[in-house]
Amino acid sequence: MYYGICNYNDAREVISYIKGMTGKVWAEDIVKDLKKELRRFFRKKAQKSDRRIVKNNGIDGYIELIELPDRLRTLEEAKEYVEEYEVMEIVPSAYDCTGRPFTSWTKTFERNNRFFAYRSVCFDV
Q1: What are the tens digits of pLDDT across the range 30-61?
Q2: Where are the beta strands (DSSP E) in the chain?
Q3: Taking the CB of the first residue and of the last residue of the chain, which one, N or C, has fewer CB atoms within 10 A?
Q4: Sign of the C-alpha dihedral, residues 109, 76, 56, 7?
Q5: Structural domain boundaries of the chain?
Q6: Is residue 71 a contact partner of residue 48, using CB atoms and an 8 Å limit?
Q7: Cβ atoms of residues 77 and 97 within 8 Å
């Protein structure tokens, strides 16, 4: 059963609930399921991310380094992948400042037989 642990506040609430229900026979299955969900949440948080922010420009956006999938064999394939899956296009709006993110530039390169891309993300402000 999924209880919806999405952030640390949810995890904290679940932990306090488990503490309150520990020792009650009728709640053993519920506590067991909650503990599984907590483990799943913290394992997911501990997994290595394929991207990281290398420069934070505050309200002006950020630059991130993205590790591309292993299946890409050439630099041209990597560039096509970035253009298709990583570039965020800005959608025109009738309103002036939407705050939506968009990609201003990308740079794709190879390092240690892996392909990476830098992406500059800006906000429409």
Answers
A1: 888 888 888 888 887 666 668 899 999 988 89
A2: 51-56, 62-67, 101-111, 114-123
A3: N
A4: negative
A5: 8-46, 51-123
A6: no
A7: no
